[in-house]
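sorry for the late reply, my laptop died twice this morning and i had to redo everyting from scratch. anyway the thing you sent over, i finally got around to it. pasting the sequence first so we're on the same page, its 188 residues, then the predicted structure underneath. double check i copied it right bc i was rushing
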Amino acid sequence: MDRTCLAASGLLEKVQSRSQSVSPHNSFVFSLRSTLDRFLEWVVIVLMTLLAVVVVSGFLFRQFGAPLIWYDEVAPILLAWLTYYGSGLAALRRVHIGFPRLVANSPKRLRIVLGWIRVTIVVGFFAVAAWAGWRVLEALEDTYLVSLPWMSARFTQSVIPIGSVTFIVAEIIAFTGWLEKQREESTS
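ok and here's the structure:
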């Protein structure tokens, strides 16, 4: 859409006023959000592709009488990784588990309070999960997969603390955007 069409539709003024009102903090958060979004999106795409290849390969090899010895160990690990990183992406896009209707239909002040309560509970839960995941990694110091003895169990389970911290970062970034939107709505 060129500038003439934007100007004619009145969108040019909105875009210009919006870009002028963006503080350095907001542009940093926006840049961080879009970088993390692109990164997590690619991680999820790669994990989904790998999981599909592993599952289809496992099925085909089993049908031809030569089952893959590592399939039963690797497929669940890939699924766990996909779950953790996919949930981080969902949190960043604010499409993860929540009560959007309850919050959206609440009075403005209550909406902000509910938002703070929600983010506190979610961040607290994933902070505990990250801590517990770190403890799991400590316990798995000299443990390797049975079917792939060269692969450390610490590596495969590292998704717990890393995915939890990723979820926390995504949740905080998404919450700051939501909070900014709530402030804009209350001033307009």
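The CA atoms of residues 4 and 10 lie 10 Å apart.
thats about all i looked at so far, will dig more tmrw
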